[in-house]
Fold this protein.
Amino acid sequence: MKKILSLCAICLYVTMLGTAQQAKKITENAPVFNVKSYGAKGDGKQLDTPAINKAIEAASKTGGGTVWFPAGTYLSGSIHLKSNIAMYLDQGAVIEAVQDTAAYDSAEPNEWGDKYQYQDFGHSHWHNSLIWGENIENVSILGPGLIYGRGLTRFLPQDKLPNTLGNKAIALKNCHNIILKDISILHGGHFAILATGVDNLTIDNLKIDTNRDGMDIDCCHNVRISNCYVNSPWDDAICLKSSYGLGYARTTENVNIVNCWVSGGFEEGTMLDGTYKPIGQGYRANFTGRIKFGTESNGGFKNITIANCTFESCQGIALETVDGALLEDVTITNITMRNIISSPIFLRLGSRMRGPEGVSPGKLRRVIISNLVAFDTRPGYCSIISGIPGYDIENVMLSNIQIYCTGGGTKEMAEREPAERENAYPEPGMFGTTPAYGFYVRHVDGIIFDNVQVTYDGEEARPAFYLNDVKNADFLHVKAKRTAGVPEFVLKNVTNFRTHYNYSLPDTLIQQTELKNLY
């Protein structure tokens, strides 16, 4: 037996040695293009854009290779990606966006954004960016280095910056086989990452500390986002979109988002430097920092999973389709949230209809949300699941959920009936304060609450659940705190409502009611 083990050990050693030697040989023979060999200084003073683009062009002409950025600060304008290259930012390497409008490519024409305005300026152009690529394949941006968008505009009037500055840190259009891994992005402009029409996209282990959106994944197929940290006080952290920027409606589908942390509660830059300074009074930010589908929703969303993510000091999960598209087949699980400033869960089917004429409102259906805990959610808002008259949200399942609210709802809030606002921009605050502290459900056909618990601190004069124009609603093993004299459920125009094994209510079956309170 000992001889056999010894022989196995020798074989394993020889195999490993051969693999190591083979890897060394491959590494030695792999073409590496040092940007300093093409004239880059990396001193933070000279504009290194021409040298960087020369290195990329040289790598492309030889069939591909690694464009290497040794330690240093590379002042740059628009960098042009090519197929079959890897940009590697070594430890200590910084690509810094120069504050010079002449250094950036102009925004290319796009009638769907410029003439018809089917989506915002930032979603309609890609060339006006620090790093951009169009119609390319097999490209990676790797390494422990930093992309610092110091000279990028976030495209807000209060910044008083010219729109001809770079608008995004990384922009990709109509590409496939793309890897973004291990890099950090500080101050990324309108979008730190905009990927439109990109298929087979891997985003892994990124740290993004930025002044608007962290990453926008638009009209993309086969996307994996994992192990990322995103602090974005002024806008969304991870945002899936399906705009009309390509000139046609294309879905975002087959997407996995796993093991990510999102926040909007820290001053920009303090996540990356490790100080995590909370945003104080007078610091202009709205704590957005969430995971969201929409608002652009022309092509739709399908076959998407979100798992093992943490939300801190930001808004919650938002699933929105308001421009006529389908949003379907979504599972969200193993989510923790703390200090949520609006709805922990927000599902909205609307009819803003920003896109070509002749399109009907879409559908939002087949959504499962499970294993979610939200602690210290702010007063005034609850989780909202709302369609519009004639267009119901369908087949939603919520299970193993605990939501802890700060309370403070008044009798006046409980008596409110939020306006429909069918055509409005979708945000949890669009309805004003909600008449429930737990869940407000309106225009829904088919919803199951299983093992859901909602509670609060202090005083609360609103019911836990408010249902309006809801059909086929099941509440199983539900536990809700309530004040004496305040109903647990308000049912308005509800059909086929059932409770079973609930903590404080007997099993109840209501086939139809125009108005009923359950205590």
Notes: DSSP finds five helices and 35 strands in the chain. The longest helix spans residues 2-29.
